[in-house]
Amino acid sequence: MDEAVAAGTATTPAHPSRGAIFDAVRADRTGPVAVRLLRLAHADDPFVRRNVMDLLHSLAPDGPWPGAAEVALARLCDVDEQVRRRAARLLVRAGREDVALNALDELTDPVVRTVLADSLGGSVAHLRADPLASVRFLTHLETLRAAPRHQWPALDMALLADAREAARHLEGVGRRWGSVLFGLDRERHTYVLAARLLAASSTSDIGAGLAREACHGWRAAAVELLPLLVRHCGRVVSPATAAALTTASISEAAMRTHGALAATVPFTPYPRVRRSSGSPPPSFGSSSAAALLAARPVGIGRLAHAPEIFGALLDAGPLTFRQAAQLYNLTFRWPGRMQAGCAPLWLRHAGPTALPRLLALMTPHLGEYTVGEYYLEGLARMGRHALPALPAVTALIDRRTRIPVNDSTQDAEMMLDERLLAAALDARRAIDGDTAPRPPAQPSDPGDTHPAVTDVE
């Protein structure tokens, strides 16, 4: 184990040594492997101490662990800053919030105190007058999460006053702030705050982080904020501003509106990766399509090129009873891409009487990021027949917030929402025949009745 920790393999995901350590410690927290791991937290090499802290942090969620908490407390004053950071997080993770609160009161190291306050979350809400700006900032954020509306102006002012100094010891100040504002649905206030922060060189990176978080949450944010990001980026585009510009470039509405302006500053636009359709689908004649289906079972669940196969048969005439049964199974047995592709074919076969049942199957899946595009494309192929589904499609388009998805990064999740939005716009045009672009939905904050920001020096 000593060698695995020293070499870093113990902290490498899926490495056998890591799995062996986890199995042994979880089986017996007082056993020899756990005891040795705790002792390694006092090794001379800071790299080893960091790895031990990481391992203990990953193992701690199994429940309170007094041994790990004791080690973490001892390492709060480590000479290595990264060890101190990890120790502060571990102390709370290991179930000793009481000890962490005491340490927060007694210690003076701003790095450790900031990490402790961050890890303690709502437990630090009483420290709004703390001498350290980063602790005050975190405290005000926690207070803002549940504050009534009439307290928002004062908390906005307090956060603005501490943001610049807090960023010295706290990472992601703008991102954290934006996340809380999104949770409160304070869209318009977020834009005003981002503008204020971007306008000052000392807080522009914080404003960029806030703007980027807004783009991840609200569809209109990129259109609103991209010009501000360009205007205030300065002669040299900082990494924070470049990242925010890259995120804003994901929005097709923003690039359509401000693309020429964005081209005046150097940044890397987000790559436009469309869903690949692969090779062109093969063409089928009615004879080849019939022969292919004859070789498949009636209870078929999947069929490559089903639209082309059944399309060729429907072009030639009505389906046989067996072919219709196959298409029925492909359409109605399982939700997913196959159902979305076959639903328009079943409409051609069965006629308008089948439409209510088909739309009842399709519309619940329009907002699912894994298959929504396919269902929207299916509605588009139905054209005017899918008119009863237009309200569901329009509701998808008119959302102010991004559709919740799960992907590797927030930018990738935003791109998935953009793809769904584009597919929904295509479907609406195909259904109602509207070819003229419509203005984007405007942000609204029905509860934001006070000015979000006033002058703060």
Explain the overall architecture.
The protein is an all-alpha fold. The protein is 61% helix and 0% strand. It contains 24 helices and no strands. It has helices at 2-7, 16-27, 32-40, 46-59, 66-74, 81-93, 97-106, 110-120, 133-145, 152-166, 173-183, 187-199, 204-217, 221-231, 239-248, 252-262, 286-294, 306-316, 321-332, 337-350, 355-362, 372-382, 390-397, 410-432. Helix 14 (221-231) runs antiparallel to helix 15 and helix 19 packs across helix 20. The longest helix has 23 residues, at 410-432. It is globular, with a radius of gyration of 28 Å. The chain starts with a helix and ends in a 25-residue tail after the last helix.
Report, as a whole number of angstroms, the end-to-end distance.
54 Å
Q: Please write the string of helix (H) and strand (E) elements.
A: HHHHHHHHHHHHHHHHHHHHHHHH
Going by helix content, strand content and strand pairing, the class is mainly alpha
Shape: globular
Total helices: the number is: 24
- Please state the CA-atom Rg, rounded to the nearest Å: 28 Å
Task: Count the beta strands.
Answer: 0
Helix content class: 55-70%
The share of residues in extended strands comes to under 5%
Spans of at least 5 consecutive residues whose pLDDT stays below 50 are none
Largest sheet: none
The averaged pLDDT comes out at 92
